[in-house]
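Support request from a user on the community tier.

User writes: "When I paste my structure tokens into the form, the page sometimes reloads and wipes my input. The last time it worked, I copied everything first. Here is what I submitted, just in case something in the input itself triggers the reload:"
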């Protein structure tokens, strides 16, 4: 859906993007990650044509990004931008008309979204009378109402309680299932693991790593394995035990092994002590910290 080739952006003496190459697959939910000041917002602004790259090219599909492509994008910025004195309904219709919808189309779609997001009684409320979370819901609706092919969400869960966070996550996934490509920028790594299938990590204006999320997690696996046994086991064959605790299934032991612990799995199975066994992949948060601290781990292309 979006391909960036050698994109560079400089502000005064600050190099915000330094030859960025990114490929955001059509139909993906793509987590755009990085520490503060990494260059994420600069790249998002270029995709939305708020600014232009100093060098490089951005493609929307197979063609260079054009001004007309704005109609195919929905953008929820981190800095919210509703008109406080307007009524909610007027605000939604106004922004929908700017995106090319007729008034009747906008009203029909808005009614459906207001019902989905439990906003039915808000039409005549003034924006300034809404809580932060309520205003966030309104802005979410204005972002998706014109049914764009590409949705860009920058910290979309700010101001939401857990119930509304889950509600909006579900709607993002539903929009993706219906064909929208989603770019998702957040500092909440647990949300990335829940809904993203691809990620790209930018640091100091450079792409550190990008690709399929599961492939990246496997690439960063570190020999951690978890065993659930019926009873507590004292002898783990010399493997380093990281943690042990009792849970509803028995005893869960996490350990490190230089290689797949085949003999241990066989031995516990023969004793009928093994309930469950899994390799523990690193979390997105673990990978994020590792890359920012130590740089990306080289890929083995054998």
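"...and here is what came back when it finally went through:"
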């Amino acid at each position: 859906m979006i391909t960036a080739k050698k994109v560079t952006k400089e502000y005064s003496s600050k190099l915000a993007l330094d030859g960025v190459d990114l490929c955001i697959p059509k139909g993906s939910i793509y987590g755009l990650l990085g520490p503060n000041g990494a260059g994420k917002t600069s790249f998002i602004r270029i995709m939305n044509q708020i600014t232009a790259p100093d060098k490089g090219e951005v493609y929307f599909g197979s063609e260079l990004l054009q001004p007309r492509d704005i109609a195919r994008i929905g953008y929820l910025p981190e800095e919210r931008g509703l008109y406080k004195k307007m009524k909610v309904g007027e605000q939604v219709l106004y922004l929908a008309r700017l995106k090319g919808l007729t008034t009747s189309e906008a009203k029909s779609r808005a009614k459906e979204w207001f019902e989905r997001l439990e906003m039915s009684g808000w039409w005549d409320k003034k924006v300034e009378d809404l809580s932060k979370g309520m205003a966030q819901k309104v802005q979410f609706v204005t972002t998706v109402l014109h049914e764009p092919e590409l949705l860009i969400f920058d910290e979309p869960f700010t101001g939401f309680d857990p119930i509304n966070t889950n509600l909006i996550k579900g709607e993002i996934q539903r929009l993706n299932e219906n064909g929208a490509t989603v770019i998702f920028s957040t500092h909440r790594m647990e949300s990335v693991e829940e809904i993203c299938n691809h990620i790209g990590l930018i640091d100091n204006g450079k792409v550190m790593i990008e690709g399929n999320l599961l492939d990246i997690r496997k690439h960063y696996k570190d020999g951690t394995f978890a065993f659930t046994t019926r009873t507590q086991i004292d002898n783990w064959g010399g493997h380093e035990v990281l943690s042990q605790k009792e849970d509803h299934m028995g005893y869960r032991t996490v350990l490190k092994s230089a290689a797949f612990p085949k003999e241990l799995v066989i031995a516990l199975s023969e004793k009928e002590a093994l309930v469950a066994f899994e390799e523990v992949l690193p979390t997105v948060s673990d990978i994020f910290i590792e890359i920012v601290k130590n740089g990306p781990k080289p890929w083995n292309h054998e």
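Agent notes: The reload is a front-end session timeout and is unrelated to the input. The two ends are 29 Å apart (CA to CA). The first helix runs from residue 40 to 47. Escalated to web team.
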